[in-house]
Specification:
Structural class: alpha+beta
CATH topology of the largest domain: Beta-Lactamase
């Protein structure tokens, strides 16, 4: 066998040529290429890390915002005494670890004492105090004034508050309004900036010398490893003191709500900064990486490459001949086993993995891989069986859930004084939306549409319990408001999961067309006349059903005229969205009902669903959808 045709000869010849060429390339170009690649990688990772860090902070701030607005909505709808309101504030702080403190500050009405309970954390303890003191004018504080004049929830600039805790904080305030829409006070939640600084320090960075810092909407430093800068400097004051236009430009981009990456000098170090806005707070977060860290990596890589190339060329020629002979035989045997495995024979014998060289390790690794492949195939089969079992159980659960609601239409074929049709489409296999209708006697028809908090199996179970209680209570009580009060107490008892349901419940007197109804935080239904005129049914006061015991519900009345149509729906209709996040909304719902008003109940429901599908344009259904359309065909009279 000629040398240049054998594996050993080829290894010797090409090993020498390749070693020389690689050495020249590594020594000549390695440094430049490595630096360029590392800079590109650093920028990509820095942008990703800055955005990810900002998103993690946004999760905290958005959670705090949602909690505050939820408490504000709850306070607006609850008719409870001051002690209960103060307890709501205490529970809010207790159940939300990201909230340092929370206050409910109300403007005093005539003859009332000022009311401003405040609860904040002191270590593991909750401290309860009041901001309604002569020495502390809460009505002139930014956290009170901004939402009062802005008419919407607001973040304050960071500040030291002497009202409680005396901690550097930022406050999110949601306004409260009375029944006339006048401003009556705020609900607040405080974010501790020392806690925020600790949170930022705990985040992983690209290197040991990197750090993060946070700017307020005005450019003030509110979180930084150097605590002397916090609340004492802005990025612009630092730029002015150092005569650094680049730093000032960075500050302008950050407070402008932009995301980006650029070179900058910070804390006496030259490097790069990636920055991104933090949710809707107006704050901006930046991650800094020193240039020295990158250069150190480049130099280390270059030295390693040069040494490896030189040593490799010297040793390669000495060992290629030996290696070529030592690896050829086991490679041929291993190749035979691989070909057999590729043909489906997983029992083909492998060569003995003698020694510790690469071929031996490859042989041993292949043996391990073959065993792992066998186990993986077996595990894959078990996983497929388990997945099929779970999917089967969910399909059965969906079938059971759908069997709980009436779905035979028309439901009362012998009745000519009314007609109705309904639709339920869970976003997942099972969901929490439901509808129901039933006669309590020949002259009274009950209508109900509800939306349980959450999705999936827990919501479906809560829905089933709600529907069972509702149907039983409706046969005992004539008053819709009384039915919801008793239902609320039944659901709230032992409700450790803090679940609730929004619910519209109505009782229609089919002789007179008089509909009495109550609502527990549910979207207002629509009423359509035969000529296409659509109006919103006034919503009586009523809190979420099942959240707290002892709640009361107001009751509304509406006299339906001949051929009036009542559309009751869940928020899965108005909040159906496109892939770009555009909502279907109340106006589109009303216009769709107006355009379809002359059709039958079944055709109207089908037409509404078709418009929702067409609007979503292929986007996944984000929430459960429930629709119930009722048409009154009796004589009726004009509304009082």
């Amino acid at each position: 066998m000629r040398l240049h045709r054998s594996l050993a000869g080829k290894l010797l010849c090409w090993g020498f040529v390749g070693s020389s060429f690689v050495l020249a390339l590594v020594v000549g170009l390695g440094y430049v290429q490595a630096r360029s690649l590392l800079e590109e990688e650093l920028e990509a990772k820095a942008r990703e890390l800055a955005q990810a860090t900002a998103n993690r902070m946004a999760i905290v701030t958005e959670s705090l915002e949602r909690t505050t607005e939820t408490v504000a909505d709850l306070v607006d709808t609850l008719a409870v005494d001051r002690a209960a309101l103060a307890e709501v504030i205490a529970r809010t702080v207790e159940r939300n670890a990201e909230i340092y403190g929370s206050a409910l500050a109300l403007l005093p009405r005539e003859g009332e004492e000022p009311f401003a309970p405040y609860v904040y954390r002191d270590g593991d303890e909750l401290v309860r105090t009041s901001l309604a003191a002569e020495s502390y004018r809460f009505d002139v504080q930014d956290w009170f004034v901004l939402p009062r004049h802005g008419g919407a929830p607001q973040w304050s600039e960071p500040y030291y508050d002497e009202g409680g805790g005396n901690v550097l904080m930022a406050t999110y305030s949601a306004p409260l309004r009375d029944g006339r829409g006048d401003f009556r006070g705020v609900v607040t939640a405080d974010l501790s900036l020392p806690w925020l600084t600790s949170f930022l320090k705990s985040l992983p960075l690209l290197g040991p010398e990197g750090f993060t810092f946070l700017l307020s909407a005005q450019g003030t430093v509110i979180a930084h490893p150097d605590e002397a800068l916090i609340m004492n400097e802005t990025l612009f004051s630092l730029a002015k003191s150092r005569d650094d236009d680049g730093l000032a430009e960075l500050g302008r981009h950050m407070i402008g709500g932009e995301a980006g990456f650029g070179a900058v000098t910070l804390s006496g170090q030259t490097g790069w900064t990636a920055f991104a806005p933090v949710g809707d707070t107006g704050w901006s977060l930046a991650v800094f990486f020193p240039r020295s860290e990158l250069l150190r990596d480049v130099a280390t890589l270059s030295r390693t490459q040069g040494a490896a190339a030189l040593i490799g060329m010297i040793l390669l020629l000495a060992v290629i001949a030996f290696l070529a002979q030592s690896i050829t035989k086991p490679l041929r045997a291993l190749d035979g086993a691989v070909q057999a495995l590729a043909g489906g024979d997983d029992e083909a014998p492998l060569p003995d993995p003698r020694g510790t060289d690469e071929v031996s390790r490859l042989t041993a690794s292949f043996a391990v891989m073959r065993e792992e492949l066998r186990r993986s195939m077996a595990e894959l089969a078990r996983t497929a069986q388990a997945r099929e079992r779970i999917e089967s159980e969910l399909r059965i659960g969906r079938a059971i859930q759908m069997s709980l609601i009436p779905k035979t239409f028309p439901p009362f074929p012998t009745r000519s004084d009314f007609a109705l049709h309904a639709l339920l489409e869970p976003a997942r296999e099972v969901g929490g939306d439901f509808y129901d209708f039933f006669l309590t006697d020949d002259d009274h028809l009950c209508l109900a549409v509800g939306d349980v908090s959450g999705k999936g199996v827990p919501a479906a179970l809560f829905m089933a319990v709600t529907r069972t209680f509702l149907k039983a209570l409706a046969r005992e009580e004539r008053s819709p408001s009384r039915v919801l009060e008793r239902l609320n107490d039944e659901l709230a008892e032992g409700n450790d999961a803090s679940m609730f349901v929004t619910l519209f419940f109505a009782v229609v007197d089919l002789r007179r067309g008089l509909m009495r109804y109550a609502s527990g935080g549910h979207p207002s239904p629509l009423v359509a006349r035969p000529d296409g005129t659509v109006s919103t049914l006034p919503r009586p006061r009523g809190p979420l059903v099942g959240a707290l015991e002892g709640m009361t519900f107001d009751e509304g009345e509406k006299t339906l005229e001949r051929d009036d149509r009542l559309l009751v729906f869940t928020d899965g209709v108005t909040e159906a969205m496109t892939a770009k996040g555009e909502l279907f909304g109340d106006d589109r719902t009303a216009r769709a009902l107006s355009a379809l008003a002359a059709l039958s109940c079944r055709e109207i429901v089908a037409g509404l669903r078709e418009r929702l599908v067409r609007f979503a344009d292929g986007a996944d259904q984000s929430d459960d959808i429930a629709l119930l359309l009722f048409t009154y065909s009796g004589k009726g009279s004009s509304d009082p």
